[in-house]
Input
Amino acid sequence: MTRKKLKSAKKVNNKKEINHKFLKNRIPTIFSRKIVRIPWKVATTFFALVGVLSSFATLDSYINDDHKAEGLFLKAKDYYYDKEYDRAIKFAKEAYDINPNIRDLKYYYTLSLIESNESDKFDLAKAVYMGNLLSSNASELAILGYIYYSDKEYKKAIEVFDKIEDPLQVNKEIYPIYITSLVDSTYKNFEYDEALNRINKYMIQISRKYNSEESAMTSEMEFLYNEQGVEIKAEDILGGNPGALETIKYSNLILNHLAFNYAMQNEDSINLDNILANGARGFDVFNYQNIELNKDFLFQFNSYIASYGGFEEQHLNNIKVIFDETINALERAKDSTEYNYESELKKLYLLKNIFVDTNNLDWPKYDINFEGSQKMNVYFSEKIDNNFTQGSVFENMIITNLGKSEYGVLKGWDTYEIELEKRIYKKNEKFNFGNENKKVPLLFERSSS
Output
């Protein structure tokens, strides 16, 4: 082989060697990549699967936690109704720590705290709502407002109460404390005229159907003595709430119960009969929770017409409405087996007969049948003499002066004991006492403070 060919062959061999070395260097590289790539896919799939399983595990944990929280809440609710408030608080707190957004959990948690003997129960109850106020329903907001009211934080109470868009959704069992704390907070937080105006708006809000146009206006239903008011009609009641009418009647009664007291304190004689006329429409004899309120209403009405005299036509019209509404309500209760208001009805008949004859009105009167002799205390804001109108049923009645009353709102009133005979007092008889100031006696005594 020539030198040239030998050199050429060497080049070729070198080239093959280079290629061989290249391949030797490449083979491990190629396989090493494949070796890395396959486990990476497996690892990725593995970790993805672990992630999914972990998510399922987490979801399952959430479901189990929610289920556990619901179970704890139900136990707390049962203990609340069993009046075992310490246990109710324990289980409610455990449920709250897991899921604070369970419906009505805050409601029963805070109610249990309020009913408990915890020294800082109001602070503990407030803490339940911290960060969860927006998720609170009407009843829970009502409880929080009551808590602020009980702590005399009236401005904060009003701010919370104003967040309740539909008062008819407040649970019936707490409605009394809701409406009472709402009204009382309003009077304590605002000047009297502003408070009275807001109270009137509350009544309109409660009585009006929210998805309808504004109700017709009438002066009969307005607290304030002007030309505006709200008429409550059956078709205006919020649909789908069978207890709405009862709630509205109760609202009428308790709103006016408090409004009357504040009107007396502020010597607001202008609005007294308007307030009472509105309250008469809430006189619900079939709601037995209202018995004491109904009795107090009769006392308030009687004390109004016994304290003032010389009523103008506007006031007389309202007084007639009050007599008619309450007498009709009491007559409907005659056949009640639980409480039939028989004694109250006879007193109201007697009071109306006295008022009609004392003021020389042509309103209808009533026959009153006393099936047995009956002694009754009556009160006058001023002392009366024994010069009764000739022919009056009181002319020859045994009347004993017991002196001045020393108690409550009747302190300083002259107290008399009259003895009614066993007979039917006819409506065409005269029932006036004959006192010159034309004030009628107070026949009803206050049921509560």
In short: The chain has a mean pLDDT of 77. The longest strand covers residues 374-380.
